[in-house]
């Protein structure tokens, strides 16, 4: 199956690509990347052959492979939600997304994606046997217990990052209550800087957006906002 066909399949799937789901996609890509690092180092082959495999491994960090992962997660998530009878719009928890995706055949979908992705490296390649070995060990990793453990580890890291961000938002509101404009603006800058890497949750994203809107109003008014202004900040 060609990559453009995979992309078309993904576009046609009627699943809301929430921030939680996008975060899970990134976790999967990251776990596979780290897993292939270990596989490449452990393979008992000459260094010149490892250089060839390194090109294959690097391709797992490309946009094309990320698209394959996104498609695999989306399709398995849809299947898993049908199995457990839960609509996608009620899933706001990355752990629930993980559970549903695994129930829907995530491992099999990712393994098939690895087959699709590595096929182009096998055509006419005299070192095809080495690439096949690397591909098969990557699929074995995806089907292993260690794969699930690594995903859980990354999800926990996300949770820690989210909690730190919530604390940052709480600190902003404390500064707002005191009308400490210096602290308020410094924290708002921190929120603006960190939100791109810290926000992997729809509710947190919304909270940060409101704070940044409020900060702009407060700087213009030099005072606390009225109820109407607060409503505007929440609706923007």
CA-CA gap between termini: 42 Å
Mean pLDDT across all amino acids: 86
What is the chains' assembly state? single chain
Total beta strand runs: 0
Percent strand: under 5%
Number of domains: 2
Number of helices: 11
Shape: elongated
Overall helicity: over 70%
- Rg over CA atoms, rounded to whole Å, is 22 Å
What's the arrangement of secondary structure elements?
Elements: H1 3-12, H2 19-42, H3 47-59, H4 63-84, H5 94-103, H6 106-122, H7 128-142, H8 145-178, H9 181-198, H10 202-221, H11 227-235
What does this protein structure show overall?
There is one protein chain. The protein has 236 residues and is an all-alpha fold. The protein folds into 2 domains: 3-143, no CATH class; 159-235, no CATH class. It contains 11 helices and no strands. Helix 2 (19-42) packs across helix 4 and helix 6 runs antiparallel to helix 7 (128-142). The chain is elongated and about 70 Å long.
Task: Using brief descriptors, characterize the structure shown.
single chain, 236 residues, 81% helix, mainly alpha, disordered N terminus, 0% strand, 2 domains
């Amino acid at each position: 199956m060609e990559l453009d066909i995979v992309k078309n399949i993904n576009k046609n799937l009627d699943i809301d690509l929430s921030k939680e789901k996008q975060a899970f996609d990134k976790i999967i890509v990251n776990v596979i990347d780290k897993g292939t690092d270990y596989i490449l180092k452990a393979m008992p082959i000459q260094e010149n052959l490892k250089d060839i495999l390194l090109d294959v491994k690097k391709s797992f960090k490309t946009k094309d492979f990320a698209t394959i992962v996104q498609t695999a997660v989306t399709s398995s998530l849809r299947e898993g939600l049908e199995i457990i009878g839960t609509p996608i719009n009620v899933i706001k928890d990355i752990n629930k997304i993980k559970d549903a995706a695994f129930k829907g055949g995530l491992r099999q979908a990712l393994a098939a994606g690895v087959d699709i992705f590595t096929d182009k490296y096998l055509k006419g390649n005299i070192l095809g046997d080495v690439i096949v070995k690397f591909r098969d060990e990557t699929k074995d990793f995806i089907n292993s217990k260690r794969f699930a453990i690594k995903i859980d580890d990354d999800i926990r890291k996300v949770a820690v990052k989210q909690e730190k961000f919530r604390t940052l938002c709480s600190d902003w509101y404390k500064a707002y209550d005191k009308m400490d404009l210096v602290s308020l603006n410094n924290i708002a800058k921190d929120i603006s800087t960190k939100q791109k890497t810290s926000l992997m949750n729809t509710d947190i994203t919304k909270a940060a957006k409101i704070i940044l809107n409020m900060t702009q109003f407060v700087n213009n008014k030099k005072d606390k906002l009225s109820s109407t202004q607060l409503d505007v900040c929440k609706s923007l």
